[in-house]
Design goal:
Number of strands: 7
Strand content: 15-25%
Order of helices and strands: HEHHEEEHEHHHEE
Helix content: 25-40%
């Protein structure tokens, strides 16, 4: 994203804040960012926060710009809010969507990539579910020595709302969506959802 903004689009003012409730995950991301050019590293901030309440945040490490534990993420301060393969793990998804709406500027975009439902393709869906519940936990056990985490993965995918239901949750949070509000990937195994915070008239 920073490469596209800084190099391809010639806009070095773009900044990205990477947020997670788990500081260990943020530390891994910060370590990996060391491979980026210095100008792009300087445009990154790492923020320990609960997505369901971004009014209380904690910058990871020193010299973080823009936020403090007392102010949190300000209202209408963000142009783009993205989350990938994570929102299904939130304990209160509607609260997280409302927070995304709060921090986005009018005209700002919420974009979410998440595992979804392949219900539109019954035969494929049957095979996919059978494979998921039998093979994925086994692979996790063999490769990572962790069957439980991979069992949780497939169960959390199964429990996550359908594309239509999640789209409706996005709309209920105040966003407007274009078309059907989502784009299926691989027959619905995953989907990209987008919503825009309406501009003021």
């Amino acid at each position: 994203m920073l490469h596209t903004a800084h190099i391809l689009n010639g806009n070095p003012d773009v900044r990205v804040t990477i947020s997670d409730i788990n500081p260990a995950m943020l530390s891994v991301g910060k370590q990996r960012s060391a491979a980026l050019p210095a100008s792009q590293q300087a445009a990154l901030s790492f923020l320990e926060a609960n997505a369901e309440d971004l009014t209380q945040t904690k910058p990871l490490g020193a010299n973080q710009v823009g936020y403090s534990p007392t102010t949190g993420v300000p209202d209408e301060s963000v142009d783009l809010y993205t989350v990938a393969f994570g929102i299904r793990n939130f304990s209160n998804i509607p609260a997280a969507l409302r927070e995304a709406y709060r921090v986005l500027k009018p005209g700002g975009v919420f974009a979410c990539l998440e595992f979804s439902k392949a219900d539109a393709h019954p035969l494929f869906n049957t095979i996919y579910k059978q494979w998921s519940f039998s093979a994925i936990p086994l692979i996790g056990q063999l490769v990572a020595g962790d069957r439980d985490s991979y069992q949780y993965l497939v169960e959390s995918i199964e429990k996550f709302p359908s594309q239509e239901d999640f789209r409706d949750m996005i709309v209920d949070a105040g966003f407007v969506v274009g078309g059907k509000g989502y784009e299926d990937l691989t027959g619905g195994v995953a989907a990209i959802h987008k919503g825009m915070k309406p501009r003021r008239k």
